[in-house]
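Try this one yourself first.
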C-alpha cells in the first residue's frame, strides 16, 4: 500500500514521452489510492525549510498577537489564525466516528490561512510588519509558487485523463486557492486514547487537489482503500533526503470526475513509533498545506467527459464558492 514516489522533473523538463509517462503514473496513483508523492516538484528545499521556520515563528507569537488576526467563524473561506478546537474535521466524515456521535470531539491543532494577495471578497488577515517582519511577503511568494505548481499538476492530469487541453486549467484561472500553515502542539497519548481528541479526524478536503509538506515528525495517514476505515502512514522524507510533496485528490475533483477519481480520505495521527503506546508525549508537528481550488463562479458539477447515458451525473451543479461555504459550515456544526 506504500505510495510510489514520482519524479515530477520528468513532466516539468522531460521529453514528450516522459511527460506522458509521468502524467499517466500520477493519474494511476490518484485513481488507486487518492494520493501521490512527488520529488523534484519545483519548490526549492530552502524555500520549504524557510516556510517551516516562518510557521514556527508565527505560532510562537503571544496569544494576544494571534488573536488580533483571528478567523471569524462563518461559512466563508477561513482567514487568519484559528486556535485549537477552532474547527472539527470529525464533522466532515460521520461514517468514521466509532461512537456515532460528534459531541465533544475536537482537533488538537491551530492553523493560519491566507489566499491570494489582493482578495477583496475575503480579505487576508496578516500579522503587522512590526510583529513579524518579512512574514507577509515571503508567504505571498510561497503562495504564488504553490499555485503555479498546482497548475502544472492539473495540466498533467488533463493528459492522464485524456481530456482536451485546458479542460481543467481553464476552470482555475481565477486564483482562489488557500495556503494553510499548521501547528500541532505536544499532546499526551493518554488524551488521544480517550477518543475525543485527534490531531486531525478522518476527512477529505474541499478543493481540487491538496499539496502537503510535512516536517520530520510525520503523522499524516491515508485510508487504505482495500480495507476501508484502516489508515496507513504517509511518511515524511528521511532526514537529508529530497523534499517530498504529498498530494491528495479532493472533493471538487471527485465531483468533476463523477467519481472516476475519489477524494483521498486522510487523518493526522501520532507518528508510527508511538502508535502502540498508552502514554507519553507526542512531539509538536508542523505542516504546510496548499488547498488548490477552482474559480469561485465555476461549477463543481460533473464535467461532460465523465457523464454518459449509462453513467449519469452523480452530483448537482453548484458553484465552487457555494460548495466551499456548504462544507466550511459543516466544520463549525455543533449538532450531534
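Now uncover the answer:
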Amino acid at each position: 500500500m506504500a505510495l510510489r514516489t514520482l519524479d515530477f522533473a520528468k513532466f516539468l523538463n522531460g521529453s514528450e514521452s516522459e511527460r506522458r509517462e509521468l502524467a499517466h503514473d500520477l493519474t494511476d496513483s490518484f485513481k488507486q489510492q487518492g494520493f501521490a508523492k512527488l520529488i523534484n516538484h519545483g519548490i526549492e528545499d530552502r524555500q520549504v525549510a524557510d516556510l517551516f521556520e516562518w510557521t514556527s515563528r508565527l505560532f510562537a507569537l503571544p496569544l494576544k498577537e494571534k488573536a488580533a488576526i483571528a478567523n471569524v467563524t462563518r461559512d466563508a473561506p477561513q482567514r487568519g489564525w484559528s486556535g485549537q478546537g477552532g474547527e472539527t474535521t470529525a464533522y466532515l466524515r460521520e461514517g468514521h466516528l466509532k461512537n456515532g456521535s460528534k459531541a465533544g470531539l475536537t482537533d488538537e491543532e491551530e492553523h493560519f490561512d491566507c489566499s491570494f494577495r489582493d482578495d477583496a471578497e475575503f480579505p487576508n488577515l496578516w500579522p503587522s510588519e512590526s510583529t513579524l517582519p518579512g512574514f507577509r511577503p515571503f508567504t505571498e511568494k510561497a503562495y504564488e509558487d504553490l499555485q503555479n505548481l498546482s497548475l502544472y499538476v492539473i495540466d498533467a492530469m488533463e493528459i492522464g485523463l485524456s481530456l482536451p487541453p485546458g479542460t481543467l486549467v481553464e476552470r482555475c484561472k481565477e486564483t482562489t486557492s488557500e495556503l494553510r500553515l499548521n501547528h500541532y502542539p505536544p499532546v499526551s497519548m493518554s488524551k488521544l486514547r480517550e477518543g475525543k481528541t485527534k490531531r486531525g479526524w478522518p476527512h477529505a478536503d474541499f478543493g481540487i487537489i491538496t499539496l502537503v509538506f510535512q516536517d520530520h515528525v510525520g503523522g499524516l495517514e491515508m485510508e487504505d482503500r482495500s480495507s476501508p476505515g484502516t489508515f496507513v502512514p504517509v511518511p515524511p522524507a528521511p532526514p537529508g533526503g529530497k523534499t517530498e510533496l504529498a498530494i491528495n485528490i479532493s472533493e471538487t475533483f471527485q465531483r468533476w470526475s463523477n467519481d472516476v477519481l475519489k477524494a483521498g480520505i486522510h487523518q493526522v495521527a501520532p507518528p508510527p513509533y508511538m502508535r502502540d503506546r498508552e502514554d507519553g508525549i507526542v512531539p509538536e508537528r508542523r505542516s504546510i498545506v496548499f488547498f488548490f481550488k477552482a474559480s469561485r463562479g465555476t461549477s463543481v458539477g460533473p464535467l461532460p467527459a465523465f457523464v454518459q447515458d449509462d453513467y449519469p451525473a452523480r452530483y448537482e451543479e453548484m458553484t465552487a464558492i457555494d460548495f466551499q461555504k456548504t462544507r466550511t459550515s459543516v466544520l463549525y456544526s455543533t449538532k450531534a
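Discussion: The chain is about 25% helix and 20% strand. The chain has a mean pLDDT of 92.
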